[in-house]
Amino acid sequence: MAEPARTQELGPRAELLFAFCRMQLPAIALPFASCSRHLERTFELYRSKIDPHASWPGYLDHLYPVDWFIASACIEGDGRAWEALFAARAGRSDCLLLDALRARAIRLYPRDEEKQDSAVTEFWTLLVVSDAPGRQPILARYDGQRPLVPWLIRVFQNWHISQLRKGVGAQALPEDDLALPNPTPDGDPRWRDAFTHAARDWLDTLDEQALILLGLRLRYRLSQREVAALLTVHEGTISRRTDQVRDQCLEFLQDRLTKEGWTGDDLSGLIRGEMHAVLLDDPRLSVDHLAALLNRHGKKLPA
Prior knowledge:
The chain has 15 helices and 2 strands.
């Protein structure tokens, strides 16, 4: 494979990118040489992980320059860049990034305030410090091809889900699932939004018993045997019901996305990367709602 063009070969376009970022964020003093180095680094990251045939023009056409500039400057230890990241806004509610991470920590670790606090604090450290030998820090995995704040929120949630899975002996999410988007047809990011809407509509079709089953398996990470004991039914009943819910989900999602033009081979990538976040964020699977459902059926949430 031919070596990619170096940033100096981009000439005016690299200089224009640098000038634009400095104009938008004049307080962040990232030198042009550092900017060029990070541009080459993130291009190679994108090319090696997502699109080995990517060209410089194609990469730059889809770059989020300000987000990329902030992330690069944070890696360089620029204090003003960190201030900009702390002050970043997240989502439709326009809340601070820190508040958005805190909200997800509450859902991931219900009724455990100490863990909620430590989850957010630990995450900031992992942005620039590797959590394992040979693994890149989180910000070093950002390639600038998507908005930084939603990406960080997704990485935060998926990283903690992987830690929870490790705690019960289940297989953790692969490294690429934690830091990079799952492939979608033609690289079109709209399929994540379409998948999210379809998954939420699928939840609308579930009865209370199915919601309880999902909540106990996902929110509380109970095994089929533990769910069966809590609900005082045979484990085989839980196994069959789990299979039914799974099959209904796949059929619903496949039908919905196919009607919207989905051309992917299957939905496994989207389900693996997006489904847990969608379900855990839904108020129907919140701690309080699950408690209310269980109470109506004469059961009690696990301690």
